[in-house]
Design a protein that fits this description.
The chain is an alpha+beta fold. The protein is built from 3 helices and 12 strands. GO terms for molecular function: hydrolase activity.
């Protein structure tokens, strides 16, 4: 079935399913789920009834910057289960915004998906390193950029189903330009694009990297609040 495409979104012109199936049985017109009024509270809670308790852990692979672990857990209903996951030391992402309204993007090869991606500069935290210190260091190393003004945009968890990785994204402003100091074996292209073009790239699929999409969303909201 062909799907018309409009600005990155698929619009369905016909139902995906025809006839009756188990999916359509026992339905009701009333939604059974409660509606939360704004502001909706944070998801984590003390004494959370959804908690899964870890009772044993085994490291299956201890890599250079990730660990693969297997855990025995007790589910909320008391039954045993097993979880597999990746342990990651965390990272920082940087949106370098120039006085002309352009931002810095990198094009970098990501081997698990066997292709290059457009993304904001980012890097892994060294042991014991603060996120902002990592952001400043990585922006100089990858792009040769120094920034006099830094703003924390937010924190994201990009793979909650199997990893504890967290990325803190910063806005870098009042930029000065120097020379890259790439790590050995690191290869990337650095460009500047208008912020509107970067947002369009997120909408039409040219950018699919999570930290970049979320970071640009935060930046757009911040700039809107500044001009309000």
């Amino acid at each position: 079935m062909g799907l018309p495409r409009t600005y990155g979104w698929h619009i369905l012109k016909e139902p995906l399913f025809s006839g009756t199936s188990a999916m359509t049985e026992h339905t009701t017109a009333e939604c059974p789920y409660p509606k939360l009024e704004a502001p909706v509270p944070r998801a984590e809670r003390e004494n959370d009834p959804l908690t899964e308790t870890s009772v044993a852990e085994r490291v299956l692979l201890d890599g250079r910057f990730i660990k693969v672990v297997e855990e025995d857990v007790v589910l909320p209903d008391g039954r045993p289960s097993r979880r597999f996951g990746l342990r990651h030391g965390g990272a920082a992402g940087m949106i370098a915004l120039g006085a002309d309204g352009t931002i810095v993007l990198e094009r970098q090869w990501r081997h698990p998906l066997r292709r290059a991606f457009w993304e904001i500069p980012a890097g892994k935290l060294d042991q014991g390193e603060a996120e902002l210190d990592c952001a400043k260091r990585e922006l100089v190393e990858e792009c040769g950029i120094h920034a006099a003004r830094w703003t924390r945009l937010g924190e994201l968890n990009n793979a909650i189903g199997y990893s504890n990785e967290r990325i803190v994204v910063f806005l870098a402003e009042d930029l000065s330009w120097g020379t890259q100091a790439l790590d050995e074996g690191e290869h990337l292209e650095v460009v500047r694009v208008d912020l509107k073009e970067a947002l369009d790239m997120c909408a039409d699929g040219r950018i699919t990297d999570v930290k970049t999409i979320v970071g640009l969303f935060w930046l757009e909201r911040l700039l809107a609040s500044r001009s309000a």
